[in-house]
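Objective 1.3, modelling of assemblies. Example input:
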Amino acid sequence: MTTTSHPRRALRPSWLLLVPALALLAVVLLFPLLQSLVRSFGAPEFTFEHYASLFTDGVTLTILGRTAGTAAVVTIVTFVLGYPYAYLMTRVSPRLRGILLVIVLVPFWTSVMARNFAWVIILQRGGPMQSIFEFFGAGQVVFYGSVVGVTIAMSQVLLPFVVLPLYSSLGSIDRRLLLAARGLGSSPLVAFWKIYWPLSRGGVVSGLILVFTLSIGFYVTPALLGSPQQSLVAQLLATRTTQLLDFAGAGALGILVLTVTLVLVAWANRFGGTISAIGVVSSPQTKGN
Amino acid sequence: MTSTLEQLDERVVERRTRPRRRDRGVDPIPWWLKLIGAAVALYFILPTLIVIPLSFSAEANFKFPPEGFSLRWYENFFTNPIWLSSLGNSALVAVLAAILATIVGTAAAIGLNHLTGRFAGFVRTVLMLSLVTPAIVVAVAVYISFLQWHLTGTPLGYVLAHAALGVPFVLVAVTSSLGGFDQTLLRASASLGASPLRSFLRVTLPLISRGIVSGAIFAFVTSFDEVVIALFLRSPTFQTLPVQMYNAVTYELDPTISAASTIVVVAVTIIILVPQLVGTRKNSR
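Predicted structure (tokens):
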């Protein structure tokens, strides 16, 4: 009896165990998103009007362009700063490497509001950052209330998404290949460009796509450090919903942003398990390490 | 996940240490690279370095470096009813959301553990979805739906929304601890006459408890720190600490936020680090 009933007993409860989690996700995530999808097509009568007006009202397209531009700059900044840092991590002593790893994880466990508040203090008019720039004779640079400040604050919290995957891929490159190239008479720069860089590219791409994707959805940082005149798509979405009460228009915009995000994540996934990478990055166990 | 990073580290150490000792003279780390590394490291910790000294300022402004020394912002935080009730609300929501996320997330992880194939993969992706969907898109959709269901501004609304955000962390943590779980133990306990429930409570649960605890902690922290959805669900009668902090920066310009920030940063660090240290000690014994 035990042998025949066993497979069925092992299978049945498994599916039932998924029900509570799926029900929760359905109520909080899937159903509201489905509702806004329906709303974006104009609930009673089917229409593409709300999507068409995103591209014709003049404002939305400008803001989408500015959001993509900001995300691109953030992506470049995180790459330029993250690559040398990840490389350094593979070169130093295990002890210092541990310290550098903990430092990378600090942005993840600094509270969102505390972090953004700190950036307001650093970047405000007459704040520390402007004083430093004044000292070097560039006092006219405005950080607070501009895309520049938003970029600085966003890059800080997104850098770990580039550094951690890069650290893992750079760590598996055999540096003796570089020494061999040097021994055969190549300059350090050529050795890097011809050997090290091609081997490291795999870890770069997925991290960069991920940073770009996450940049698109930032709300608190641009709301606090940016300005309404230079708003990004998340602020537009919030304004449409809570102030203009344009639920259909907001639905269309939200679905557009969500679609772009999911397509980019799926693309990044092809270069390595991105969703699980976020899990590793943000898990408390990693944080403790 | 600990193991992922450890493996990663081992791999790196293995490849690195042997050749490095010998060729230190041939292959030095250039000074400019060390300089960039130090600058980036400073960039990572800069906000924390700013917030803590600022909270001890004696002046009612946001100037940095702060002038004077006082505990007045801490005093204000712990005596002002608005700050205190926000802290209480956040703690309540975070505890309930963490409990809910842990129960449904653990059940799902155990359920998915036996399952393979397309549908199981699909379910896993759906449960992990909140990690990649932009918070603002979810917040706006949840806001409109919760308005119809009269859930905005209610503790239940916050708990449901935050629990959904916590599920992926519980799922990942418990799945990883189930990876080392030997299924024959369950057959052994069943053959000794234990009911499935008893087997679960006496065999499975103790063995995956570390994963459950770390998932629960992260679900708690996620809820405690969540601000975007909370901004949309708030009402004049019910708001959480991050929302009050948002108000303090944008409308009220209340320096108490520096004390609140420091308290949150220190509390979250303790919540995350302490179980880690306790766990390590238990392991090494």
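DSSP finds twelve helices and no strands in chain B.
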